[in-house]
Structure formats: structure tokens, C-alpha cells
Amino acid sequence: MKKLLLIPVLLIAIAPGIARSAQVDDQSDPQALIRTATQQVLDEVRERAIAPTDIPRIRAVVNRDILPYVDFRRTTQLSMGRHWRSATPAQRDKVTEQFQLLLIHLYSGALAQLKPDQQIQYPPMRVSASETDVVVRTVALANGKQYEIDYRLYRTPAGWRVYDLNVLGAWLIQTYRQQFNETIQQSGVDGLIRFLVQRNTELAAGGGNG
Questions:
Q1: Residue 140 predicted with pLDDT over 90
Q2: What is the CB neighbour count within 10 angstroms for residue 106?
Q3: Which positions ≥6 away from 133 have C-beta within 8 Å?
Q4: What is the pTM of this model?
Q5: Cα gap 113→128, rounded to integer Å
Q6: Which strands sit side by side in the sheet containing 159-167, from one edge to the other?
Q7: pLDDT recorded at residue 9
Q8: Which long-range contacts (CB under 8 A, 24 or more apart) does 116-123 make?
Q9: Cys bridge to 17: 22, 65, 88, 174, which one at CB 3.0-4.6 A?
């Protein structure tokens, strides 16, 4: 079941940026951002398939297109919880870098499974001008089944940014917070960094899919 969920999850973690030429209007309402970005990733898949093993290409896409719309640093901060405050700036940067790479590795395989005719439904929502943190709910249709997917975004001076995601009740930050907390309690922040580096090394060598 976990592997099946990686397909819709990818639309959250990757979709806000794999665009061919159009720019996502990140000043628009959050649902419009998700809707436009998701269509762009499907257009990308329709034009040229992305191999799950092509990590350099996926990382290039992330650096070029995804980072402007996803706040990985906020995701990492919330995943580390109280340990973020005690970490040094260098440790924070390293954990953020390795956590981002881990997510790229875990979700890259699902990208190759996306179909050009993938359908996403967007339940109606309203966002007031005063709201600064919202959840955009979507439903991915795959193999005759429906997968509920939630995107959590917050408003910044530069526009809306994705920082958390939920698939069938499993929030990314909540899931990793427990694991990060246990690792840090046992071996400190440096131990978490070593764990992430080792896991990324294993994934790069084909030693598992998370």
C-alpha cells in the first residue's frame, strides 16, 4: 500500500515546479497554484518520460523549478521540532540538504509511473485574504480508486509555498518528526545527518526504495 501511495504523493512533492516554459503564478490563490502546477507536470510527462534512475535530471528540475514553490527548509524545521533550535546553522543546512535529497530519491520512482491521462479532482474551497496557512485538498484517480491528497501551504511575502503533504491521513512532517526525534535523542543532530547521508547513499546505489 505504501508504494501505491508514492504515485499521488509525488504530485505534491514534485508537481509545483516541473514546467516546460510556463511559470506558476505563485501570487495566485493556493488552489490555483496546485492546479496549474499539477497540469504542468502531467504535460511534462506526456512530452517526455522521466526515468526514475535519472537523479541528476530530477535534482536539476528541483533546483530550477521546485524550490521556488516548496519550502523544504520549513519542512525540515518542523520535522526536527525542538531540536531545530539547538542545531547549529551548519547542521540545519546539512539536514535540510540531505532530507531534500532523501525525498527526491523516495519519490523519483513514482514519477515514471505517472500517466498522461492522470486525473486530479479539486473540491471547492474558499481562501480569505486574511488567511496565512491553508490546506488544499485534492483527489487523485488511479486504477479505479480515489486517493485523497492534501497540500499544506503558507503565505509568504513572495507568494504561497508548499511545506507539508498528507496522503490518506499520513502527514509527511508528522511521519518524519518521530523518526528524527528518536535518532537525535540517540546520537544527536550529527547522528541524524549521518543517518540521512547513509540512507541517500544506499538509495543512490539501488539499495532500497525507502
A1: no
A2: 19
A3: 152, 153, 154, 155
A4: 0.79
A5: 36
A6: 119-121, 133-142, 145-156, 159-167, 170-171
A7: 40
A8: 116/42, 116/45, 116/46, 118/42, 118/45, 118/142, 120/11, 120/35, 120/38, 122/31, 122/34, 122/35
A9: 65
* Per-residue pLDDT tens over the stretch 74-91: 999 999 999 999 999 999
3-state secondary structure 191-206: HHHHHHHHHHHHHHCC
Helices then strands, each counted (H, E), the chain: 7, 5
Residue 110: all three cell numbers together: 513514482
Quick one: which of 143, 153, 161, 163 has its CA closest to 72? 163
- The one-letter amino acid code at 138 reads T
Q: Bridge-partner residues for 134, per DSSP?
A: 153
Rounded Cα distance between 133 and 202, Å, is 36
Q: Which residue has the higher pLDDT, 12 or 101?
A: 101
